[in-house]
């Protein structure tokens, strides 16, 4: 099925396989080739799978059945609905917390035993054997993660956050929240992170939380849904959107142990639509996540979690560091913000090029996807194991309380190839898990722990790995790679400043990580709170805010945020919050004139006409007119809008009339229920209508949404876009300002595709958006 509405402007045309043109495509063009023709086959990359894209309908379909169902609800049913929403929010937090704990335990134990085995052979000076075990284990884990994604769930590749943003914006991303996708995401994340790849589990946890929310709201997987009566309340796009918002916030909370940061992340980054009631339920979900995490941390502190170790809710605690800064520190802090904005935008630009290259490789088939992942894993393993041999051994500082040197799976002073009493600073950063690497580089009161050469090697390697790892066919997150890169140059700047600053080098690393995340992702408020909850140091608040604001401002002057770039590349029809300035000089009437005439239906329509409309179009809604002459438009008025799914339901149930008449209210309730009409059943292929039934009639009035959103033809496209996005519409009717005699009361139907800036410019090639924005 194609995109809804009576026409889509300038979307993609698909001939059976993905097409890419990296030489000619600009930043705003998706990976799937677009043709400058009016098309009705919208496609996008969901994960690594090409899918037909539909829109969601967050508008309430106010037909007669809905109105009767709403009026007939008792106070007990209303209470049941409210109680069910809070119960599901609690379950989303509970299950997300449990799965996050499972992932953390699995990663720490798998990676821990791998590093212990490597450390054993290193301690015996059997470096080649250690390399083989390290590389072999990483390749095996990567192979498992990649094969699962490629074979069973292509939509599980990547972080999933761009697709979640698109869904909450009103784009139905197929197979994105299924049970198979969630299971592959969980197992794939464990394998990819434990393999030492330069990726994190934070983005996948956001996707996993959203999958949990979606599955709970619909009663389970598509083929095995639970048909409980109270779940019928959530059989609509609006409530499912709220649940997925709670799931995304819970995922961030589980990844960073940051409940308030999770709520703000959902508000600032992924959610398009927000209200105070949703804020409370989202906060409740994240609170449940924290309770679950805290309970398991207490269990693990007793030593019953294998190699998981001990710790608290604070992942990278720097609260013991005395934060002192003076006016002179404004200069290095400003430099960190500027560097973060420049490097973040440069990273986005280069990653955009790499993703285009990977798309060409992935088009060649499943084997090439697996080989690409294994190649990246092999390069990563060799570099992580081999580069520490370039570092000089540093003597242990006897005044430091931590054990030095160590050769286990963790520790801040790894011995590696050094003699007793000495440690290898590069091995400390490389031969450990990514979380421990961040802890090590954030370590405070250790001004001479890492040499400048080692920090440069660390920074350069993770810049390369951050570019080549994201985009392979494994679940992957961007948060941790960016933190690793940012902390490196932050610590380097702190080392250069030396005695000229009172700020600890570990805090410089924290500021560097925050600045690069703001420069790449362009988040501010949520990042600020997440870093405060990560580090447990409120005294960092003023300079963290300062750094984030500078980095975002600098980054915005160069390009889009990384998630917006990925949205464009995938071709997901995301509607931006702010219209382009030239859209104010184009009216919806002009937009409607570029489209073929609207297909309308009578209030009481012949079955043959309905079948013809469904068979010859892919539109998902049709205006219903009443009046003297619907065919010519004379004396007609708009009764409402009927969905394609409802027409298919009518034909399948054979709700036909022998004569042209209006039906009674009891006749409709006898045949249909509001729960049935909430189902998205639009498969017309298996509907067989006899020739005698073709001459019968259907009364469309009871199933028609009598209050669709309409705009007059003189309204600017910019204003229509704001209305469409704010309300969460699927269809927007354009009506004449004055209905002349013989004129139809509907000029056209606007859909999501019609209001996208890229598509408008394809339909109006003479629109000069760089100057006045007027048609030349």
UniProtKB/TrEMBL annotation:
Membrane topology: Multi-pass membrane protein
Gene Ontology CC annotations of this record: chloride channel complex; plant-type vacuole membrane
Primary location class: membrane
Domain of life: Eukaryota
UniProt keywords, alphabetically: CBS domain, Chloride, Chloride channel, Ion channel, Ion transport, Membrane, Repeat, Transmembrane, Transmembrane helix, Transport, Voltage-gated channel
Every CBS domain range: 704-769
Gene Ontology molecular function: any one: nitrate:proton symporter activity
Residues that span the membrane, as ranges: 81-107, 127-153, 278-297, 330-350, 370-391, 455-485, 506-532, 538-555
Keyword Membrane in record: yes
PANTHER family from the UniProt entry: CHLORIDE CHANNEL PROTEIN CLC FAMILY MEMBER, CHLORIDE CHANNEL PROTEIN CLC-A
Protein name: Chloride channel protein
The species this protein was found in: Brassica carinata
């Amino acid at each position: 099925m194609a995109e809804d509405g009576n026409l889509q402007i300038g979307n993609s045309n698909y001939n059976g396989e993905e097409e890419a043109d990296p030489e000619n495509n600009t930043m705003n063009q998706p990976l799937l080739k677009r043709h400058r023709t009016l098309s009705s086959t919208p496609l996008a990359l969901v994960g690594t799978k090409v899918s037909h894209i539909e829109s969601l309908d967050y508008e309430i379909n106010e037909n007669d059945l809905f109105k009767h169902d709403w009026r007939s609800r008792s106070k007990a049913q209303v209470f049941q609905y409210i109680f069910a929403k809070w119960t599901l929010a609690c379950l989303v937090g509970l299950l997300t917390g449990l799965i996050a704990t499972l992932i953390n335990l699995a990663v720490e134990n798998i990676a821990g035993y791998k590093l212990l085995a490597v450390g054993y052979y290193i301690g015996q000076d059997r470096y080649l054997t250690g390399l083989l075990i390290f590389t072999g284990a990483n390749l095996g884990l990567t192979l498992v993660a990649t094969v699962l994604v490629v074979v069973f769930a292509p939509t599980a590749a990547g972080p999933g956050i761009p697709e979640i943003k698109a869904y909450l914006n009103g784009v139905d991303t197929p197979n994105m929240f299924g049970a198979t996708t969630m299971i592959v995401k969980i197992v794939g994340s464990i394998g990819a992170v434990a393999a030492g790849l330069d990726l994190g589990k934070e983005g996948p946890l956001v996707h996993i939380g959203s999958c949990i929310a979606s599955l709970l709201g619909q009663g389970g997987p598509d083929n095995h849904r639970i048909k409980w009566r109270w779940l019928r309340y959530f059989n609509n796009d609006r409530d499912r959107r709220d649940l997925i918002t709670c799931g995304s916030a819970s995922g961030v909370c589980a990844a960073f142990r940051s409940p308030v940061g999770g709520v703000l992340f959902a508000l600032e980054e992924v959610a398009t639509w927000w209200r105070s009631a949703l804020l409370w339920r989202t906060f409740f979900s994240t609170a449940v996540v924290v309770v679950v995490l805290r309970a398991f941390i207490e269990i693990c502190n007793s030593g019953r979690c294998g190699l998981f170790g001990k710790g608290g809710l604070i992942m990278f605690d720097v609260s013991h560091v005395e934060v002192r800064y003076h006016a002179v520190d404004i200069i290095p802090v400003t430099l960190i913000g500027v560097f973060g904005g420049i490097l973040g935008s440069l990273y986005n630009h280069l990653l955009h090029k790499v993703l285009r290259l990977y798309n060409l490789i992935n088009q060649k088939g499943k084997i090439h996807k697996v080989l690409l992942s294994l190649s990246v894993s092999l390069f990563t393993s060799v570099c992580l194991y081999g580069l520490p041999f370039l570092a000089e051994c540093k003597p242990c500082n006897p005044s430091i309380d931590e054990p030095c040197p160590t050769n286990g799976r963790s520790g801040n002073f790894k011995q590696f190839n050094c003699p007793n009493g000495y440690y290898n600073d590069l091995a400390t950063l490389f031969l450990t898990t990514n979380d421990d690497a961040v802890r090590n580089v954030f370590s405070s009161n250790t001004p001479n722990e890492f040499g400048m050469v080692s920090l440069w090697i660390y920074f350069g390697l993770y810049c390369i790995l951050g570019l080549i790892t994201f985009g392979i066919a494994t679940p992957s997150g961007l948060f941790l790679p960016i933190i690793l890169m940012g902390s490196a140059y932050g610590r380097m700047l702190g080392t250069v400043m030396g005695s000229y600053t009172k700020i600890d080098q570990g805090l410089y690393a924290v500021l560097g990580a925050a600045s690069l995340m703001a420069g790449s992702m362009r988040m501010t408020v949520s990042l600020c709170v997440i870093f405060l909850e990560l580090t447990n140091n409120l005294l960092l608040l003023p300079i963290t805010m300062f750094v984030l604001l500078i980095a975002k401002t600098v980054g915005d002057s160069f390009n889009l945020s990384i998630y917006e770039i990925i949205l464009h590349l995938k071709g997901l029809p995301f509607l931006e919050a702010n219209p382009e300035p030239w859209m104010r000089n184009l009216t919806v009437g002009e937009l409607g004139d570029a489209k073929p005439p609207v297909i309308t239906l009578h209030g009481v329509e012949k079955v043959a006409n309905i079948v013809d409309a469904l068979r010859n179009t892919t539109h998902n809604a049709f205006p219903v007119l009443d009046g003297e002459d619907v065919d010519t438009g004379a004396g007609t008025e708009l009764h409402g809008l009927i969905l394609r799914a409802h027409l298919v339901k009518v034909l399948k149930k054979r709700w036909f009339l022998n004569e042209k008449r209006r039906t009674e209210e009891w006749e409709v309730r006898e045949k249909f229920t509001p729960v049935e009409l909430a189902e998205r059943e639009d498969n017309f292929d298996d509907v067989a209508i006899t020739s005698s039934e073709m001459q019968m009639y259907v009364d469309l009035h009871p199933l028609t949404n009598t209050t669709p959103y309409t705009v007059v033809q003189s309204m600017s496209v910019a204003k229509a876009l704001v209305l469409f996005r704010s309300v969460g519409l699927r269809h927007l009717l354009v009506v004449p300002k004055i209905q002349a005699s013989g004129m139809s009361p509907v000029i056209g139907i606007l859909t999501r595709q019609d209001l996208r800036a890229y598509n408008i410019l394809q339909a109006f090639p003479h629109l000069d958006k760089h100057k006045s924005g007027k048609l030349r």
